[in-house]
Amino acid sequence: MENFAFENDAKSEQSSRTSNSPTKESETDHNLLYSIEDTPAWYTCFVLGLQHYLVAIGSVIGLPLLIAPSLCIENDEEGNVARALLISSLFFVSGLCTLLQTTLGIRLPIMQGGTFSFLPPTLAILALPHNQCPAPLPEGFMNSSKTLYNDTDGSIVDGTEVWQRRMREVQGAIAVASSLQVILGFSGAIGFLLRYIGPLTIAPAVALIGLDLFSTASYNAEPQWGIAMFTAFVVVLCSQYLKNIYIPLPIYSTSRKCHTVKVPFFKMFPVLCALISGWMLSLIFTETGVFPDNPDHPSYRARTDIRSNVLTNSPWFYFPYPGQWGLPTVTVAGVVGMLAGVVAGFIESIGDYYACARLSGAPNPPQHAINRGIFVEGIGCILAGVIGTGTATTSFSENIGAIGITRVGSRRVLQVAGVLFLILGMLSKFGSIFVTIPDPVIGGLFCVAFGMITAVGLSNLQYIDFNSPRNLFIVGASLFMGLAVPEWMKANPGVIQTSVIELDQIITVLLQTSMLVGGFLAFFFDNTIPGTENERGLLAWRTNRYSTEGMQEEELKKAEKECYNLPFPTNCCRFSRYFPILPEFGNNSKCDDDNSGTAISRL
Asked: Are residues 450 and 579 located together in one domain of the fold?
C-alpha cells in the first residue's frame, strides 16, 4: 500500500491535474486537497460533485414547495405533478446557471440555485387582489379530469390555468427586473463601487450571510434536533477528527493495473458521509414507527416518506423550456417590486465571491471578474424567468461553506455538480429520489456550513487595526444593526407605509436583507469616518490579496489570470480594453501571450 497524495499519486491521477495551478501546497492552500485550478480524477469528481448536489438540494426543492400554495396549486394528484415539474425546472436552470457561472462568469467553484431574495416580492405579487386564489367547486359539481375553481366573478376556470396564469406574471417580473443586473455587470458599475470596498466592508457583509441564515438552519432542524445534531456530529467527526485517517481503496490504472491506495476519505467526503448517515437513521426510525405519521406532530417532517408523492407523480423524462407555462406577462407593479430582490441578490453574491475565493485557494476576484459574474448571474435570472421556476438564481452560500468543510475548491467539481442538476432536472424521476432527504438532516448540515461562512467573513478582519476605536465601532455597529433591523422588519410586517405599494415592497425587501443592511452601514462608515489606509487595513488588503501570505505581485497577477481569465482568448480585438467584463479592461497594452497561451488549458 501507499499513501494517497493528490499531487503525485498514480500517474493517471497526476495527469488529470492541471499543470498551471496557482497555489503552492505547502504555503498557500491551507491544506486544500484540491485548489481551484486542480482537476481530480473523473470518479473523484463525480463523488465530490454529488456531495455538492446533495448540499444544495434542500434549498432547491424548498422554494417551489414554499410558493406552491400562493400559486394556488392544490394538494391533489395534479398539484403534486405541478410541484414535481417546478422542482425539475429549477434543477435544470440551477445546473445550467452553475455551468455558465463557473465557465464564463466569475469562474469560481460556486453553485447557482434558487434564491430566497426573490421570495418576498414574489409573495407580494401573488397576494395582489387579482391573484387571490378562487374557491374550489363543491365535490361532484362537475365531472372533469382537472380540478375546477369558482372564480371571483362566478365563472368556472381550469385549475391548471389558475396557477399557470399567476406563474406567468411572476416570470415576466423576474425576467424584466433581472435585466438591471445584466446592465450593471456589463457596464462595469459594480466594479466601480469595488474601489471603495475594503476588509471593513467585506467582513461584516460576508459574516452576516452566515449569521442571517441561522433561522433557515433552525427551521430545518427543529422537527427533530436529535437527527440534526447527529448529522452535524458526523460532519465534525469526519472533517476535523478523522481528517488524517487514510482508508485503503482499490483502484485501476493502465500503468499499474489493479492496486490499492490510501485515501483521506473522511477529509474528502464529510458532507456525503453525514447526509447518508442521517438519511439512513431517519429511514430506520420512519420504518420502525419511531417518527409519528401525524402531520401535526413536530417530528413528522423528520420522516423520509412525506415527499414520496413527488417521486410517484413526477414523470420519467421532462425537458423544461422557455414559455412552458405560456407567454410571460409583464406588469409595472411586479417589475418594480422584483427589483428589490435583484438588488439584494447581487449584493449577496458579491460577498459570496470573496468568501468562495478565500476558501478555494484563489486570489480575491479582480474587477473584471466580478463584473462578469454579476453579468452572467443576471443572464441566469432571466433564463429562470422565461423558463418559469417561480424564482431567480443566485450564489449558494451553503455550498461555499461545504468547500470550507471538505477542503475541496476545484472548479471542475462544481461543474460536475452543475451537470448533475442539469441531467436530473430532465430525468425528474431519479432526481426526485433525493427529495426524500428529511429536513433535519439538511438542517444539521447547515448548522456547520453556515458557521463556516461566518468565520470566513470575520477572517478578513485580520487586515485591520483592531486597537482602533474607529474600527471597533464600525464592526460592532454594522453587525448588530445587520441583525437587529431585519429582525424588527420581520416582526412588524407592513410597518413601511409610503402610500406607494411598489416603494413599500422595495424598502421592505432591502431592510429585511441582513447582508445589505450591515454591508451598507460598514461601507458608509468606512468611507466617511476619518482613518488612515493602514488603520482601515487597505494597505494589507491590497498588498496581500491572496488567501495566504508570501505571494509576490507578479505571482499574484499570474494567479489571477489563471483563475479568472476566460477559457478562450479575449485580446484579439483592440477594443477589448473598453469592455468591463473582459480581463483586458483598462489595459492599454497589446496582446498578452499568457492569456492566449493558457486559454485552452483553462477550459
From this structure: no
Residue 28 pLDDT class (50, 70, 90 cuts): very low
Is 138 inside a domain boundary? no
Confidence band, pLDDT 50/70/90 cuts, at residue 140: low
In a domain, 464, yes or no: no
- 302 closest CA partner among 445, 432, 442: 442
What type of residue sits at position 155? Answer: S
Instruction: Output the 3-class SS for 307-363.
Output: CHHHHHHCCCCCCCCCCCCCCCCCCHHHHHHHHHHHHHHHHHHHHHHHHHHHHCCCC
Q: How many other CB atoms are found less than 10 A from the CB of residue 19?
A: 9
Structural domain boundaries enclosing 600 = 567-603
Question: Any residues with CB less than 8 A from the CB of 194 and at least 6 apart, and which?
Answer: 350, 367, 370
pLDDT digits (tens, 9 = 90+) for 387-432: 988 888 888 877 887 888 788 889 999 999 999 999 988 887 776 7
Q: Contact at 8 Å (CB) between 54 and 272? A: yes
Provide the 3-class DSSP secondary structure of residue 435: helix
CA distance 603 to 599: 7
Residue 508 within a domain = no
How many alpha carbons fall within 13 Å on the CB side of residue 503? Answer: 5
Name residue, grid cell 372533469.
Answer: 144
Q: What is the pLDDT of residues 479-505, one digit of tens each?
A: 999 999 988 988 887 788 888 776 777
Q: Write the CB contacts of 475 (distance below 8 Å, at least 6 apart in sequence).
A: 200, 203, 204, 461, 522
What amino acid is encoded at 170 in this protein? V
Backbone angles phi, psi at 113, to 5 degrees: -160, 180
Q: What is the DSSP letter of 151?
A: -
Q: How many of the other CB atoms lie within 10 Å of CB of 466?
A: 10
How far CA 119 is from CA of 68, 85, 160, 333, 441, in Å, comes to 12, 19, 22, 15, 23
Cβ atoms 37, 20 nearer than 8 A = yes
In the block, which residue shows the cell 399557470? 164
Give the 3-state secondary structure of residue 496: coil
Q: Are 188 and 371 in contact (CB under 8 A)?
A: yes
Residue 530: pLDDT band with limits 50, 70, 90: very high
The most distant pair of C-alpha atoms in the chain lies apart, rounded to whole Å, by 77
Cell of 430: 431519479
What local confidence, expressed as pLDDT, does residue 37 receive? Answer: 87
Question: Would you state the cell numbers that stand for residue 75, as one nine-digit string?
Answer: 394538494
| Residues paired with 258 in a beta bridge | 252
Q: What's the whole-number average pLDDT of the chain?
A: 78
Give how many domains the chain has, as a whole number: 2
- Please tell me whether residues 225 and 363 are part of one structural domain: yes
pTM of the model as a whole: 0.73
